[in-house]
User: What shape does this take?
Amino acid sequence: MKYFLIETNKRNHIPYAINVNRAVDIRYANREMAYKIPNCCVVDMKTPMEVFFPDIIIEPFLMVSEEVADVIEMYAPETIFKTIYLLETKTEISCTYFMPFVEEIDCLSDKTKMNRGKTELLEIVLRKEAVENKAIFRVAGYTHTYLIGRMDFLESILRRGIRGIELTDLEFEQGEEKI
Assistant: This one.
């Protein structure tokens, strides 16, 4: 089965300066600390002249549209969600997202390439035994969200017409074989 890194396509005019008001403490943006984040948060943002709201926003923390949240719930019913209301007070533009706390898995192979400080992943190589039977998950141990989805999960969200994402095909640690 193939797996892909899911990212927000930054070539679109997406909201920026999200969470300047620190309504969401990103230190708690993980499954173990989810209880410390309120069920509903109004989060500041700034928008460009022509704003585009993608279905998945990776930074500063993971947020998904209702359509994506529904699919996550189908594939990972144990996922916890918090409601995020993005609001630009100056223009009164708003959008509702959901913050999923998907499972975090230690799944990186020794062949994964990282930056010098080992804080950023440059090329992800997965261990097959760690990701088997996982439809969607995050790479454990990083503050940046590295969201990974299995092919059937991605087909489900793409059939629902989601927009604004980039996908990168990932490899197994065995080398040539792709997943």
